[in-house]
Amino acid sequence: MAKLDERIGFIGGGNMAFAIGSGLIGRGIVKPSQVLTSGPHIENLARWREIGAGTTDENNEVVEHTDIIFICVKPHMLEPCTTALKNTYVPSAKDGNKLFISVLAGTTVKSLEDKLTFFGSSEIKIIRTMPNTSMQIGEGCTVYTGNSHVTHQDLEKVHLMLNSLGVAQQVPETMIDAISGLSGCGPAFVYTIIEALADGGVKQGVPRQMALQFAAQTLLGAAKTVLLTGKHPAVLRDEVCSPGGSTIVGVHELEKGNLRATLINAVEKSAQRSAELGKK
Ligand SMILES: NC(=O)c1ccc[n+]([C@@H]2O[C@H](COP(=O)([O-])OP(=O)(O)OC[C@H]3O[C@@H](n4cnc5c(N)ncnc54)[C@H](OP(=O)(O)O)[C@@H]3O)[C@@H](O)[C@H]2O)c1
């Protein structure tokens, strides 16, 4: 797999940042010594130090010493974070080459351009992404879009990084909130489904650990079958529902419980909430 020579920064070292940073290090895309992460509480960045990355409680050090900078704070923290940077960051001639990558839900490219004004270049390069935490194990989903200053080479580097941690796709910005509801928030929906399937197993007498393992493996197997065969999930479902059999009885229960409508609603509400978060 190709490697990057650039230094990678993270402003905010929480769950999403760690999923990306540890994933990039774990996959060998960058060496730990190329990574620098900042956050207000240095003690909360211990896991970064454990994987060999540098840490600091000064965001301006990350901007100064790295080339590709992931912004990984909560959307409502963007404003205080960039305002503080305006007071501390000393602009440099090299600023124009730096690339900012936002993972913030709902926060538009325009809003990022308006807020990242601490910088020495008016032509700031910005990529907006919507990743998910499964990137930590190389099975993530990320969409991304760039502003007008981002070059083809920048997009190639971003694609290399994000795609090495799962699948990545460039999309129009208008699609990003929808993807946020689907795959950004989706892992939480699926964890709930796994837990519920396991509970069903436990209710029928399967030991808890085994029930969890089999529930998760069942999802993994079904997901891989969809991806590898290219068959529509409804076709695959029909294939396992023999007439008068046990599976169709269970599928009927899912329909009575509105599983499909509930998941559609969950994606819709999460997408709407993502868009709202960026407006606050
Ligand atoms: N988690 C997901 O599944 C997911 C998926 C897609 C996108 N996202 C996006 O990822 C972003 C981060 O979410 P998260 O789940 O990773 O949240 P999180 O775990 O709470 O991480 C946020 C981090 O920001 C740090 N922080 C707070 N104020 C800061 C400041 N002024 N400067 C630098 N760092 C600061 C926090 O440090 P302290 O804890 O020390 O205060 C914390 O480590 C959000 O914008 C979210 O929309 C998350």
Automatic annotation (TrEMBL):
<comment type="similarity">
    <text>Belongs to the pyrroline-5-carboxylate reductase family.</text>
</comment>
<dbReference type="InterPro" id="IPR008927">
    <property type="entry name" value="6-PGluconate_DH-like_C_sf"/>
</dbReference>
<dbReference type="InterPro" id="IPR053790">
    <property type="entry name" value="P5CR-like_CS"/>
</dbReference>
<dbReference type="InterPro" id="IPR029036">
    <property type="entry name" value="P5CR_dimer"/>
</dbReference>
<feature type="domain" description="Pyrroline-5-carboxylate reductase catalytic N-terminal">
    <location>
        <begin position="7"/>
        <end position="106"/>
    </location>
</feature>
<dbReference type="GO" id="GO:0004735">
    <property type="term" value="F:pyrroline-5-carboxylate reductase activity"/>
</dbReference>
<feature type="binding site">
    <location>
        <begin position="11"/>
        <end position="16"/>
    </location>
    <ligand>
        <name>NADP(+)</name>
    </ligand>
</feature>
<protein>
    <recommendedName>
        <fullName>Pyrroline-5-carboxylate reductase</fullName>
        <ecNumber>1.5.1.2</ecNumber>
    </recommendedName>
</protein>
<keyword id="KW-0641">Proline biosynthesis</keyword>
<dbReference type="GO" id="GO:0005737">
    <property type="term" value="C:cytoplasm"/>
</dbReference>
<dbReference type="Pfam" id="PF03807">
    <property type="entry name" value="F420_oxidored"/>
</dbReference>
<dbReference type="InterPro" id="IPR000304">
    <property type="entry name" value="Pyrroline-COOH_reductase"/>
</dbReference>
<keyword id="KW-0521">NADP</keyword>
<dbReference type="InterPro" id="IPR036291">
    <property type="entry name" value="NAD(P)-bd_dom_sf"/>
</dbReference>
<comment type="pathway">
    <text>Amino-acid biosynthesis; L-proline biosynthesis; L-proline from L-glutamate 5-semialdehyde: step 1/1.</text>
</comment>
<keyword id="KW-0963">Cytoplasm</keyword>
<keyword id="KW-0028">Amino-acid biosynthesis</keyword>
<feature type="binding site">
    <location>
        <position position="59"/>
    </location>
    <ligand>
        <name>NADPH</name>
    </ligand>
</feature>
<feature type="domain" description="Pyrroline-5-carboxylate reductase dimerisation">
    <location>
        <begin position="173"/>
        <end position="277"/>
    </location>
</feature>
<keyword id="KW-0560">Oxidoreductase</keyword>
<dbReference type="Pfam" id="PF14748">
    <property type="entry name" value="P5CR_dimer"/>
</dbReference>
<dbReference type="GO" id="GO:0055129">
    <property type="term" value="P:L-proline biosynthetic process"/>
</dbReference>
<dbReference type="InterPro" id="IPR028939">
    <property type="entry name" value="P5C_Rdtase_cat_N"/>
</dbReference>
